Each structure stands twice: as structure tokens, then as C-alpha cells.
UniProtKB/TrEMBL annotation:
One of the record's GO molecular function terms: prenyltransferase activity
One Pfam assignment: polyprenyl_synt
Keywords for this protein: Chloroplast, Isoprene biosynthesis, Magnesium, Metal-binding, Plastid, Transferase
Name the record gives this protein: Prenyl transferase
Gene Ontology BP annotations: isoprenoid biosynthetic process; quinone biosynthetic process
Keyword Ribosomal protein set for record: no
Entry keyword Chloroplast: yes
Swiss-Prot/TrEMBL cofactor(s): Mg(2+)
Family membership: Belongs to the FPP/GGPP synthase family.
Family matches, as PROSITE patterns: POLYPRENYL_SYNTHASE_1 (PS00723), POLYPRENYL_SYNTHASE_2 (PS00444)
Length: 324
């Protein structure tokens, strides 16, 4: 209900985005084309492009947003989807958003090529915005994705990593795109550099809170809601906030991770340990902390006569409500 109330005002923009995505990434080769159609037909909340659209509406004096803002929202979703394709190959996920992943439906080779193709398409559309500042800001995100994956891959099942290292990795894998797209939207609205940076910080901390919430849901969610089995992060050795906080108090969890969940029942046993411990509440506190930081960055930007910022605040509340 909250989600619907936030995005009612931009439902036409989101519908345009959905209509455009498949046509934007249409490939000449039928297999790549089928892979692209499969990806975008899976849907998803479109949260990242929605935030771009909301910022555009907040920063423009016209009733409708520009074609460049709409294209940036579309580019953001294409980049995000490309990263998911590669993530699924690396993590060997069978389902995503409740549907079969590209590598499971086709092959690892096709999935990697499909992800590369989407990154290439996003770069082409990005260049055609003809805004060098936006190009520089968004293109760095693809580098950050690779950095995040390497950092994650080097720390699989390593229970000695710090929460700070987890946050840094989460920035590269998730928050970087949201931060850059928020800043890019402000750039397209021709805001000054200080305001652009405020929107960047909003997106950065919103993205970190979003990732922490997603990691909590991996422990407390359901397969139906997540579109994938719970405990997927644990199974792949990705140690997230609720896991790291629980490790402070549980030698049993540490032993299960050290043995890389060698028994079939080890994942469910580990999930149970985390659910009973204090790590979940500590992770929730961390998510709330980053969300509060995100929302506080909006305060210098607000005008008394402008209530549009309420939608950006409500996005934050929507993200947090999923874990309560």
C-alpha cells in the first residue's frame, strides 16, 4: 500500500520505462534477444529507476520530466539487470525474482555474453545523452561492480572480515549505482555541484540501507517473497551484516562457516542460529542508521513550498518496513 501511494504520481513514467526496456536491448541474435526478453519480463520493483524519476520530478519546475531523465532511468535499470546476470552465474543461482535465471535457462556462456551485451547497450545509450559529466559518473559504476565482485569472491567463508569491509563491498555492489544515478539525475536538472553531491549522498546511504535490508531478508524472508531460497548468501559464503554480527556471539555458527556447510542440514541450522541471536537486531539498527543519514541529506535541499521531497522520504520508509 505504501509503495503504491509513493509511485502513483509516476506510474505513467514507469509504464513508459517498462515498455521501452525490451525494445532498447533488442539484439540481432535470437538467443541474446530471447535472454533479454526473459530478463525484463521477470519484472521487479524498478526501485532504482523510480528513484531517478522521483528526483527528476523534484528538481524540475515542469510537470513532466525530460527525455534525458527518462533515458537515465532506463540505463540505470539495464546496468542493474546486467549485474544480476553476472551475479547469478557467479553465485550459481537457479531462480531470480521467482523465474529461472538466464544461465540456468540457456548456459553460463550465454549468460555472460548477455550481461556483457547489456552493459554495452547501456554504455551506448549513456554516451547518447551527450552529457560528459553524467557519462563519467555512471560509467564508473561498471568498474565498481567488478571491484565489488572481486572483493566478495576473495572473502567467501571468511568469518574474520569486518563490518566495515562488508559495507565497503556493499557500496561497490549496490550503493554505487544508486548514488551515481541520483547524482546523474541532479546533473541533468542542472543543479549546482553542492546539490548534486547531496543527491549522491542520499543515493549512497539509501543504497547501503537497501543492501542491508536485502541481506536481512535472506535470513528472515520466504522463498516465495524472495524469489529464491532463503540462506542463499550463507550457502555461497557471502557473509552479510546479520551473519557477521551473530558471529560475535556464536562459535557454533563460526564452525559451520569454517566447514563451508558440508552437511545438508547446516544451512537451516545456521539460519536458525542467526534468527535466535542478536545479530538481526544489530543489522536492522545499521540499516536504520544509513537510512537516517540518507534522509538527513535531503534537509538542505528542501524548500518550504515544496512537498515533493516527501516521496523520497517515503521510499526510505518503504525499504525499511520490509524487515518489520
Amino acid at each position: 500500500m505504501v509503495y503504491q501511494s509513493i509511485f502513483t504520481a509516476i506510474e505513467d513514467d514507469l509504464q513508459d520505462l517498462n515498455d521501452n526496456l525490451e525494445s532498447m536491448v533488442g539484439a540481432r541474435h535470437p538467443v541474446l534477444n530471447a535472454a533479454s526478453e526473459h530478463l525484463f519480463s521477470a519484472g521487479g520493483k524498478r526501485l532504482r529507476p523510480a528513484i531517478v524519476i522521483l528526483i527528476a520530478h523534484n528538481t524540475l519546475s515542469t510537470p513532466s520530466i525530460t527525455a534525458s531523465h527518462k533515458r537515465l532511468a532506463e540505463i540505470t535499470e539495464i546496468i542493474h539487470t546486467a549485474s544480476l546476470v553476472h551475479d547469478d552465474v557467479i553465485d550459481e543461482c537457479i531462480t531470480r525474482r521467482g523465474v529461472t535465471t538466464v544461465h540456468s535457462l540457456f548456459s553460463n556462456k550465454i549468460a555472460v555474453l548477455a550481461g556483457d551485451f547489456l552493459f554495452a547497450q547501456s554504455s551506448w545509450y549513456l554516451a547518447n545523452l551527450n552529457n560528459l559529466s553524467v557519462v563519467k559518473t555512471i560509467s564508473k559504476v561498471i568498474t565498481d561492480f567488478a571491484e565489488g565482485e572481486v572483493r566478495q569472491g576473495l572473502t567467501h567463508f571468511n568469518y574474520t572480515i569486518s563490518v566495515d569491509a562488508y559495507i565497503e563491498k556493499s557500496f561497490y555492489k549496490t550503493a554505487s549505482l544508486i548514488a551515481a544515478s541520483c547524482q546523474g539525475a541532479a546533473m541533468l536538472s542542472q543543479l549546482n555541484e553542492q546539490e548534486q553531491n547531496q543527491y549522491y549522498l542520499y543515493g549512497k546511504h539509501m543504497g547501503l540501507a537497501f543492501q542491508i535490508v536485502d541481506d536481512i531478508l535472506d535470513i528472515i524472508g520466504t522463498k516465495k517473497k524472495l524469489g529464491k531460497p532463503i540462506g542463499s548468501d550463507l550457502k555461497n559464503g557471502n557473509l552479510t551484516a546479520p551473519i557477521l554480527f551473530t558471529l560475535y556471539d556464536s562459535y557454533e555458527l563460526r564452525n559451520l562457516i569454517d566447514q563451508e556447510f558440508e552437511n545438508k542440514s547446516d544451512i537451516s541450522k545456521a539460519v536458525s542460529i542467526i534468527q535466535r541471536g542478536t545479530g538481526l537486531n544489530k543489522a536492522k539498527d545499521l540499516a536504520e542508521e544509513h537510512m537516517q543519514t540518507a534522509l538527513s541529506t535531503l534537509e538542505p535541499l528542501q524548500r518550504q513550498e515544496n512537498n515533493k521531497f516527501l516521496s523520497l522520504v517515503l521510499v526510505g520508509h518503504y525499504i525499511l518496513q520490509q524487515i518489520y
